[in-house]
Amino acid sequence: MSINLIYLIAGVAMFLAAVLPSVLDRYAVSAAMVLLVLGMGIGLLPLPAGMRLDPVAIRPQVERVTEFTILVALMGVGLAIDRTFTWRSGSAWATWSPTWRLLVVAMPLTIASVALLGWGLGIAPAAALLLGAALAPTDPVLASDVQVEGPRVETDEEAAENESADGDDRPAEAALGEPVDEKDDVRFALTSEAGLNDGLAFPFVTAAVLLASAGGLSSVGSWGLQWLAWDLVGKVVVGVAAGVAVGWGLAKVAFRSPRRSLRLAEQGEPLLALAALVMTYGVSQLVGGYGFISVFACGMTLRAAERNHRYHRSMHEVVQRLERLLTLIILLMLGMSMTKGVLDELDWRGVVIALTLVFVLRPTAGWLSLRLKARAQGLPGGLGRKETLATAFFGVRGIGSLYYLAFAAGEHPFPEERWLWSTVAFTILLSVMVHGTLATPVMHYLERRRDRAGVA
C-alpha cells in the first residue's frame, strides 16, 4: 500500500473525527454511515498497484487493528458507566438485570439461531457456529450512538448542595446526585451488554475452531467437557479477576499513593487509561483469561475508585478520541474493501442471514430475555415495553465481528472463509445503515417520553 495513500486516509479520518460528531448531532445519520459510504466511494477510484484490501491476504493486520480498537472501546465503556456494582449486594445485581438477561439468554439464543439458520442453508456446522458467534455480540465500538455518553462527575454546585443536604433524610445515593444512566435504562443496558459480551462470545468462537479442527460434530465428546469447564467458565472468571486486580492496583496508586508524584489523578494525567488497558490485556492473556472482559472489568474498577473525581472524565475523553480515530480509519478501509471485492462471495444465503439477524433473530432474542419475568418498570433496571423493544432491536454489529472472524480463520483454515467475510461485511453494512438511521430519532423519542413521565 502506498505510504502517501495511508497518510491521506489517516488525515481524512482525523478531520472527520473532529467535525462529524457536531455536524451530525441533529440528524438521523451516524458517523459510521458517512465513513462507510465515503470509503465505498474511494474504493471505486483507481488505487495504487499493490494496494491490497483483501481481508484474507491481510488477515493478521485486520486482527491486530480491530483487536486494539475493541480494547480501547471496552476501556471507554468501563469508565463511562455510572451505575455501581457490588458483588455482595442483591440490589446491585437487580439493577443490572437487563445486562444479565441480554448476556445469559439473548446472546446464546442469537448464536444458536444464526448457527442453525446457516446450517439449514447448507453451511458447514463449524462455519455456521463461527458466523453465529461473530455476529452475536453488540459491538462496543459502533453502538456508541445508543450508549451512555460518559462518566458523570459531581459539579461544584452539586457538591455544595450535597454538603448542605448531609442532614437530610435522603438516601446517600441521592445526596451524590443522580447519575445520568440511572434515568436511561436503555442506554445502560446496551452499554453494559457491549462491555461484557465480547469476552463472553469468545468461548463460542473457540468452539467453532475446535469443531472445524477436530473433525465435525462427532468430535464434540472429546473436547466438550473441557471447553465447558475452562473456555466457557474458567477463562471468564480468570479474566474478570485479572481486570479487577489490575484496576484496583492502578486506582490505589493513582488516587491514594503516599508519594505525590505517583498520584496521577492529582496531576490529571489521562494516559493512565491507555496504560491500564494495555497492561490489563497483557496480564489477562498471560494468565489464560479473556482479555476483552478483563479490560472492561479494569475500567469498571477504576471508575469505582473515587467515583466523583474529575479524573475519570479526563481518562474517558482520551480513550474516546483514540477510539473515534481508530474506528473511522477502519470504517474507511472497510468501505473501500466493499467496492474492491470483499462482497464478491456474497450470495442469497448471506443476505438472508443478515436480514434475519438484524430484523428478527436479535430483536426476538432480546425481547424474550427482557420480558421473561420482567423487572418492574419503575425500578432501576426495569424496562417498559417500548424501552424493551428498543433495547432488543439495537444490537449493533460491527468491528468485533471482523476481529472474531480474523482470529478464528488465523487459528484454523475455514473453506468458507471468503463467504464468511462477505456475509459479515454485508451484515455490518446493513446494521450500520439501519441502526444508524433509527438510533437518533428513537433515542430522542424515548428521552422525551421519559421526561414527560417524570413531569407527570
From TrEMBL:
Membrane-crossing residue ranges in chain numbering: 6-24, 31-53, 65-81, 102-135, 200-220, 232-251, 271-304, 325-343, 349-368, 389-407, 419-442
Region (Disordered): 150-177
Residue ranges constituting the Cation/H+ exchanger transmembrane domain according to the UniProt record: 16-149, 190-443
Gene Ontology CC: plasma membrane
Gene Ontology MF terms: antiporter activity
Entry keywords, A to Z: Antiport, Cell membrane, Ion transport, Membrane, Transmembrane, Transmembrane helix, Transport
UniProt main location, coarse: membrane
Recorded topology in the membrane: Multi-pass membrane protein
BP terms from Gene Ontology: proton transmembrane transport
Subcellular location(s) per record: Cell membrane
A Pfam cross-reference name: Na_H_Exchanger
InterPro entries listed in its UniProt record: Cation/H_exchanger_TM, Na+/solute_symporter_sf
Biased composition (Acidic residues): 155-166
Entry protein name: Cation transporter
Source organism phylogeny: Bacteria, Bacillati, Actinomycetota, Actinomycetes, Micrococcales
